[in-house]
UniProtKB/TrEMBL annotation:
This is K+-H+ exchange-like protein. GO terms for cellular component: mitochondrial inner membrane. GO terms for biological process: potassium ion transport; proton transmembrane transport. The chain crosses the membrane at residues 144-173. The keyword Manganese does not apply. The keyword Transmembrane applies. Keywords: Membrane, Transmembrane, Transmembrane helix.
Amino acid sequence: MKARLVVFPIKGKIWCFSRSIDQSASAFNSANTPSTVKELWKKISTNSKPLNANAELLVDFISNKMNNAWVGLEKAPEGSFKNKLHGFGLQLLARVKPSEVLLKSISKEVTNVRITYPPSLNSRLVRRRLRHIAMRGTVLHRKYFYGSVTLLPLTTALAVLPLPNIPFFWVLFRTYSHWRALQGSEKLLQLVSDYSRAQSFSSEMMEASKELEELLRKGYENGSVNEKAISDICIKFKLNKIDVLKWRDLV
């Protein structure tokens, strides 16, 4: 599977790194994830793959259940407890760093990346910065993953309270999120750090886009890219605007 990464300066010396939305990949993952415990057990018990592959299947199953629960909160009536819970969840998600979102988008199915960037940027510097994000991610998300795992038993104890165990579900989500980001870091590092491969296939891996350069030129004002230009870039290159804005608002 190919992944398209779009890189461009968004505010001062801050660059945006975002993956184009791939609907087919999402559909493929959903279709291959069991929807019930019975289906999960059947698939694991008949699976001849290594233990880590079954662990991956279990993680995907839990992730699918969490996503469905989140969609249920999103559709809750205005003013209801579930609706307020969804709003609180959005505030927590807003604190997730954009680099983590990028790394989580690089799944194990990705076999190569195509990096789109404005011609004004040096291709080697673009690749170097991506490699730095991947290397830093392997260190940070491994540390945070183990930290989140140690908190799970503590938050589980809060289940005795007559309220939804929000801390447990948040720590569970962060555990999953850091694990996915760690996997993505390792995969991205593998894809962008093989110098000989990058040299041989540079024309396939790197794509200087004049159209991206023009959109940036028209929308750059007061030291950053304005929201109109960001919207146009997101539409053209199929990016998630919320994720892109996180880079611009990064402190």
